[in-house]
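To: structure subgroup
Subject: Chain for Friday's discussion

All,

I'm putting the inputs and outputs inline so they're searchable in the archive.
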Amino acid sequence: MRYVGGKSKIAGQIAEVILASTPHRHLYLEPFVGGGSVLAKMAPHFEQTLAGDAHEDLMLMWQSVREGWVPPAVTKERYQELRYSTEPSAERGFAGFGGSFGGRWFEGFAQGGFNGTTPRNHQAESSRAVMRIAEAIKDSNVYFDQRDYRSWPTDCDGPHVIYCDPPYAGSLHDYKPGSFDTAAFWEQAARWADEGHAVFVSEYAAPEGWESIWSAQKRQSLIVGSSPRDIRTEHLWVRSGKAEA
């Protein structure tokens, strides 16, 4: 699924940098799995992968896809039904992100544009994107779970490789309803690094004690031809002096 903040266009670069920086291939943890682009590049290289998110519907979607479910290209009518549903489900998780404008949770039914002379079907495109992720990880040992990022156990099985793609600081569109405490996140990331894990964080900026080991310009908007102010520099941050585990 494409969404603002997604890593589909730079996932390969991020994975290449992380893999070059870490010798261990036992356990990979991604506590903000989102659209799964980086997961698809990383999971095949590890014995075990843990992937999670706090958003219940999103995790129901990934768990169902892992079990063979194929997201339907939801119609506008079905999108509206799911938008006002109070029952979490895999289909609602797919529609809420994959069927919405900009990939923002039920912000409006994505429509418009052409592929050549053919009108685009954004929902079908998102379904195919999800299935490409499923295909990429089908032979990997991946476990999906709905969790707050702070609840993953990291005190067993030796050093982990942890990649975090949290909501951008100050974002108006967090990956789940409610606010996200960016300062608390960085404190947790520092604890993981201090425990001996290799921690990598995607963000525009980081607090003192973190250093950028890779950067790339990235468009914030999914609208083709959007203004230069929508382009920002994304970094991959590591705890100073602790890139390896």
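Points worth raising on Friday:
The chain has seven helices and nine strands.
The longest strand covers residues 210-219.

D.
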